[in-house]
Amino acid sequence: MIIVLRPDATEEQxxxxxxxxxxxxxxxxxxxxxxxxxxxxxGDESVLEGQPLEILPGVEKVMPILKPYKLVSRxxxxxxxxxxxxxxxxxxxxxQIIAGPCSIETKGLLFDAANxxxxxxxxxxxxxxxxxxxxxxxxxxxxxxxxKYLWDARKETGMxxxxxxxxxxDMDIVYQHTDVIQIGARNMQNFRLLTEVxxxxxxxxxxxxxxxxxxxFLMSAEYVAAQGNHKIILCExxxxxxxxAVRNTLDLSAVPVLKEETHxxxxxxxxxxxxxxxxxxxxxxxxxAVGADGLMIEVHADPENALxxxxxxxxxxxxxxxxxxxxxxxxxxxxxx
Amino acid sequence: MIIVLRPDATEEQxxxxxxxxxxxxxxxxxxxxxxxxxxxxxGDESVLEGQPLEILPGVEKVMPILKPYKLVSRxxxxxxxxxxxxxxxxxxxxxQIIAGPCSIETKGLLFDAANxxxxxxxxxxxxxxxxxxxxxxxxxxxxxxxxKYLWDARKETGMxxxxxxxxxxDMDIVYQHTDVIQIGARNMQNFRLLTEVxxxxxxxxxxxxxxxxxxxFLMSAEYVAAQGNHKIILCExxxxxxxxAVRNTLDLSAVPVLKEETHxxxxxxxxxxxxxxxxxxxxxxxxxAVGADGLMIEVHADPENALxxxxxxxxxxxxxxxxxxxxxxxxxxxxxx
Amino acid sequence: MIIVLRPDATEEQxxxxxxxxxxxxxxxxxxxxxxxxxxxxxGDESVLEGQPLEILPGVEKVMPILKPYKLVSRxxxxxxxxxxxxxxxxxxxxxQIIAGPCSIETKGLLFDAANxxxxxxxxxxxxxxxxxxxxxxxxxxxxxxxxKYLWDARKETGMxxxxxxxxxxDMDIVYQHTDVIQIGARNMQNFRLLTEVxxxxxxxxxxxxxxxxxxxFLMSAEYVAAQGNHKIILCExxxxxxxxAVRNTLDLSAVPVLKEETHxxxxxxxxxxxxxxxxxxxxxxxxxAVGADGLMIEVHADPENALxxxxxxxxxxxxxxxxxxxxxxxxxxxxxx
Amino acid sequence: MIIVLRPDATEEQxxxxxxxxxxxxxxxxxxxxxxxxxxxxxGDESVLEGQPLEILPGVEKVMPILKPYKLVSRxxxxxxxxxxxxxxxxxxxxxQIIAGPCSIETKGLLFDAANxxxxxxxxxxxxxxxxxxxxxxxxxxxxxxxxKYLWDARKETGMxxxxxxxxxxDMDIVYQHTDVIQIGARNMQNFRLLTEVxxxxxxxxxxxxxxxxxxxFLMSAEYVAAQGNHKIILCExxxxxxxxAVRNTLDLSAVPVLKEETHxxxxxxxxxxxxxxxxxxxxxxxxxAVGADGLMIEVHADPENALxxxxxxxxxxxxxxxxxxxxxxxxxxxxxx
Lengths: 337, 337, 337, 337
Fold this sequence. Notes:
4 copies of one chain form a homotetramer. The first copy, chain A, is 33% helix and 18% strand. Chain A is an alpha/beta fold. Chain A has 2 domains: 2-63, Alpha-Beta Plaits; 83-332, Aldolase class I (TIM Barrel).
């Protein structure tokens, strides 16, 4: 931690700051420049977490040196984490496609989607039983019934499944019916939910919040890891900006930033970011080109009559075409699919 | 709902769109202009909620006419809602100040803060027992013990209290120890939590999410109201923008916008928005000048040693001075305090 | 400047960094912590301006200690700058209101607006002759003819005038017809224009760009000051955020931040920020309450038929009412008007 | 234009609105729904440009039907515009790479960069002589001397060149020394400059402003086209968001949106967006994968000692590697390079 002093800081103030830092068990290093004196607090910076040093009299600003996340950092673990989901490896050389409907509506529609995405080459099946909807009057998902259909589809196709957990009270039932527990963008800072999934032994797919910085995203992953569960898949899904031409702005620069900062696998959800099926294809290609380890794509057998996010869902025939195109991009960047 | 057609829409496409709308029980009104044909869907627009009309062939764009929120809208109820919290009326001519520490740390510190804010003129006491913290390694609040101290402070001072609920599993214990249930900014779209507090008979203080539009903010209030609880206090607390000079950007234009759109009371939390105690005073004055019904201000007897948000907490003596200044502004805008 | 090294930085890399800094004439101070070594570059930090130290091998990050602006900083000049515009003092205890139409349309309309705002208590007259319009097909202003009307209105009313300069080629003609040269938000980083007005001896009213940080805003003021013209009035006029309920988000926290960082006067333009006349009043009151030195408000005798920004213009009768309300707020914060 | 009326609009108000629209030469179409009456204004919507219909009594909101840009729209011209720059075709099947130093520093450095990027396969040379710098104390470019070096490099290599115009007073000298006139992000709404380049017969490379919506971006292109110059190359270069991990957030979804809205070619500048050389490669690949017609990449023979943007400049050897990787992506999306 570096503490920059005001030019008019008094000796008394400087001494108070130094004592404060020493009282927290850190060593102090003072450096007097022409225009500013700076104090370095040397040692375990985490003891300063939440300490309002910036309000100590004489302080101009406080600059942390170390990153606030540990377990998920590239510094903590140099090699990439590869997560095994029922034999499907996420984070390695092979790019994985997770596909399926936004929400589970009927067993028939789910099975149709599952069979078609499997045939096209997707390795994991997605489907929402509990749906976070902006309006209380919109379809909220089938709940437990939906989870059962999903588990049935898993048996039918042999594909591991991903579904969202919204409420800690649903943990048991969701745990029993999924291979990967998804935490949605709106719950990225639902810290109690993060703590709960951190205690589980199944992989967590953590979506970036709409206005979460990459640092905050990694801190949420740290919440999960701090409880012991290190099987975390990060998912960029668009951030909120001033631009309204598409639903959210897909932040593809987040992928190389995350790859530098963390050892965890990083996937991209272009469907929720753009909100329009016809832009899912170009953004999917870009996501693989930029270095993502996988994609999460919404596929629905009958988007026009979908109960949720029909506008962004690909029809199975379009998905087949896209998968072929994605394979070419994967090869162009030296990966398999 | 207005559906604008592409210039090249075929008759067949137009007929398909018309049939789709009629099948949903709405009347259709077609208007052909020189450059575009538009279709009006007349009737209860809410049946179109989630219908992906924009992907029907021939459609250029879809524009809703009605607002998605009902119960909380000014159209539903013209007169202002005034919420009575243990005799303190929020939303009327009198401006109410909610004050207290960010988190409850010890019984002594809480009682000190409670007594001093009461003496200075605050009418409600705030204090957090469950704290949403960005870092898993930071102080997470005293939990149930904190709630008990808060309830004791209520008995001691006679002030009604406000505290945050983060997890539906804590509903009972929080309900028993508070007059107002706070939903924090990070949980503004925790729809399960909103549904739960919507079933309660105690007022809810709902904070705006960091990247929530005003429309989304009102939709979250609608979630609560849809369950039957209409006692909702809205709280603007700063939004996330590109500016980093302060923690968040306090959006004071949200106050007149909300006053126009909804009948619910609107308060402002300047402490969390700016994150610096020395800017709390000017922004508090501005919030009252712009038309807020109240303020939520963090006060701590010893900010330098606070376990949470010390940098933005006012010392009791500063709070006394601020209260005097706020009274003058309240009078200048024709209100009491 | 603080340079934080990567944990794996080699001795050779460290020596290269040290030599680089020394070669720029700065002293070097090395501090080895448990987890990171940091290098302090001591001396005139401005020689490092634009030096890409962050790409030197072994560097993790570079953190500047000093602020990049000098002449406009509070550190350079402690006392507030008060700018005299034809006897009207901006930046002192008295709050000044600049009012008038968005664009000059006819001599008659301008004179009507000028006389009415003067009568209501405004001290400066605004009016645009060169208008930056998003559409090439919209009214672009009367140009020189408009400037002449403005100068006539100045003679008629005795009020000093403010008008915008968009193009360095118009400098002479604008200079001859105005007391204050306005640089619009879209030109805040038109560095050639800033350099030109920096050579003039008339005050400059510099508007904050839609996505300019406060630091960038002050750097643009520094451009003007660096040429010798220190008579700069800063104007907050709303920033671009994700919120679309109003045109821009008025950032009132910018006022206390600017007051801390700079000695220059700070005014607020609520009209352009909200884009709606009925929200101008509450935001004007808030701007004075938060500490602004003045306001810039659009007033038009016939907003319904205005050629530019009619939606945000106050009718003269509404402006009279607002001025009375603003006086009360000014008094409540210990200022005159 | 659709005008939605308030539920309480009186007959008198409705008549006033209808008369207003008719007086502007448009036909009126009234449609009464259960909850709202809406008025359609049928005819040339552009006469309503700037008309503040939203303040007419009884109006709730005004919704435009048509797009505000014409000449640059895909509706105006269905087939892609292909721009020929000295034999290099931009906007066709072949992807073009524009490369070179951020600023021209010495003739030697420029020639080194020019020769190496040509050898690696770039077809156009970039180099700045007039540099927009945030700080008045930073290197501002060599000006005319730099332009001459650029023209010499053009003769030496045979590559057409691109350079930025910042000031209408430099038009002649820039025009004489470049093949493509660049308008920088900070000047995207410098409407006088846009008007000037609109009168020229050389292609314009227009960069998106940091906080410009795609609609505004296209309106700026319309400014150029409205003067007669239809040779416009659009360039996405990152937008300003809350994320600070990289300099700006590259908005790759803008590419398919632009491709749908306009017939103009679209290129991407990853260097300015990320501000870090090591992220230029992944984002370049993503830009081609998403459908861009070309890239603009900064290459410097000695980034460590560059006077401008050294941190984001690729060394020639890295550029050679990147070009090979980009060719593979181009082929994977069915294009040549």
